[in-house]
Write a structure and sequence with these properties.
Organism: Treponema denticola H-22
Number of helices: 2
CATH topology: YaeB-like fold
Keywords: Toxin-antitoxin system
Order of helices and strands: EHHEEEE
CATH class: Alpha Beta
CATH superfamily: RelE-like
Family: Belongs to the RelE toxin family.
Helix content: 25-40%
Number of strands: 5
Low-confidence stretches: none
Distance between the termini: 28 Å
Radius of gyration: 12 Å
Structural class: alpha+beta
CATH architecture: 2-Layer Sandwich
Protein name: RelE/StbE family addiction module toxin
Mean pLDDT: 95
InterPro entries: RelE/ParE_toxin (IPR007712), RelE/ParE_toxin_dom_sf (IPR035093)
Shape: globular
Length: about 80
């Protein structure tokens, strides 16, 4: 699968601590190598249905997975207390 980072995600990532940013990017590289990216993370419900969430420490990465085109679009990252708002 190919991982695509949105501009919003890139801006949010720059605001994070360098160590956390590195952990997040390393995690996304691991996801990219998986045959099934849904083997990790969790599907979201309610107003965020259709999105998938990955956990890296206290931060959450919100993604949209397109199985037809084998693309994971990384939409947003944020602290677990604020990312779902």
């Amino acid at each position: 699968m190919k991982v695509i980072l949105t501009e919003t995600f890139k801006k949010q990532l720059k605001k994070l601590d360098a160590a956390i940013s590195k952990r997040v990017l390393d995690y996304l590289e691991q996801i990219e190598l998986l045959d099934n990216p849904r083997s990790r993370g969790k599907a979201l419900t309610s107003n965020l249905s259709g999105l998938w969430r990955y956990r890296v420490g206290n931060y959450r990465i919100l993604c949209r997975i397109n199985d037809d085109r084998l693309i994971i679009t990384v939409i947003e990252i944020g602290h677990r207390s604020t990312v779902y708002r």
